[in-house]
């Protein structure tokens, strides 16, 4: 997956206000973005006028105002996140008006993969189980997105364990990923699962970090 920043749009406000000075500028810039997949990060700043708690609330209101425009634009299907950096300036000394803003940073995300080659999905499991840990959700969603956008693809999921041999667990891990994809609308006929127990480690098992690399699920894309 390749992530590239394609635009950074400063959105300015008057002192104490959550109304955008020039909303049409933001609408126009977002409308010009042609990327099919990506993410948007909105970062809100405030000036030094008023108390910190007041400015914290103001920064949040500004994020909500900008978010409404972003979510009504042609990038509304992108992943959207927000950061409140109320009065955090990293030591820079600029005039207050510069910090009455929300920066809208837009990234394109391009999924790149090769056919017929096992690719580690970097999905983490609870030890000795097929329970997927929450931090793996984004990687599952990336795989789902690829399959949704290209219905000609089929996949093989290869399950692996790290230490003690367990063919059953390796299969169950692959099947758990398949279950997620099917629950999101991917046809089960497009997905096959195999288990390899602990016969194909990618590194040694001398510590927990290496063990986690070995207890994995790989995907093989096919047409």
Per DSSP, the total helix count is 5
The figure for the number of domains is: 2
Largest sheet strand order: 1-4-2-3
Give the % helix. 25-40%
CATH topology of the largest domain: 60s Ribosomal Protein L30, Chain: A
CATH class of the largest domain: Alpha Beta
Order of helices and strands: EHEHEEEHEHEHE
Name the beta content range.
Answer: 15-25%
CATH superfamily of the largest domain: OmpA-like domain
- Uncertain spans: none
Coarse structural class:
alpha/beta
Q: Specify the CATH architecture of the largest domain.
A: 2-Layer Sandwich
The termini sit apart by 19 Å
Radius of gyration: 23 Å
- The total count of strands amounts to 8
Shape estimate: elongated
Largest sheet: 4 strands, mixed
Search tags:
60s Ribosomal Protein L30, Chain: A, alpha/beta, 2 domains, 4-stranded mixed beta sheet, 223 residues
Describe this structure in words.
The chain contains 5 helices and 8 strands, in the order E-H-E-H-E-E-E-H-E-H-E-H-E. It has 223 residues and is α/β, with parallel strands linked by helices. The chain has 2 domains: 2-110, 60s Ribosomal Protein L30, Chain: A, CATH 3.30.1330; 119-222, 60s Ribosomal Protein L30, Chain: A, CATH 3.30.1330.
């Amino acid at each position: 997956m390749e992530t590239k920043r394609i635009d950074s749009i400063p959105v300015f406000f008057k002192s104490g206000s959550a109304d955008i000075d020039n909303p049409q500028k933001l609408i126009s810039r977002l409308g010009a973005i042609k990327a099919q997949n990506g993410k948007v990060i909105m970062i809100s700043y405030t000036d030094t006028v008023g108390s910190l708690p007041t400015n914290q609330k103001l920064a949040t209101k500004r994020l909500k105002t900008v978010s409404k425009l972003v979510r009504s634009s042609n990038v509304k299907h992108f992943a959207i996140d927000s950061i409140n950096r109320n009065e955090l300036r990293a030591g820079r000394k600029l005039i207050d008006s510069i910090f009455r803003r929300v920066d809208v940073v837009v990234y394109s995300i391009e999924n790149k993969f090769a056919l017929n080659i096992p690719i580690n999905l970097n999905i983490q499991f609870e030890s000795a189980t097929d329970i997927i840990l929450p931090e793996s959700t984004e990687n599952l969603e990336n795989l789902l997105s690829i399959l949704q956008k290209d219905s000609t693809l089929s996949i093989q999921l290869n399950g692996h364990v790290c230490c003690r041999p367990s063919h059953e667990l390796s299969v169950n891990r692959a099947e758990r990923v398949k279950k997620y994809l099917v629950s999101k609308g991917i046809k089960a006929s497009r997905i096959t699962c195999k288990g390899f127990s602990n016969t194909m480690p990618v590194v040694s098992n001398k510590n927990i970090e290496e063990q986690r690399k070995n207890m994995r699920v790989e995907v093989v894309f096919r047409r």
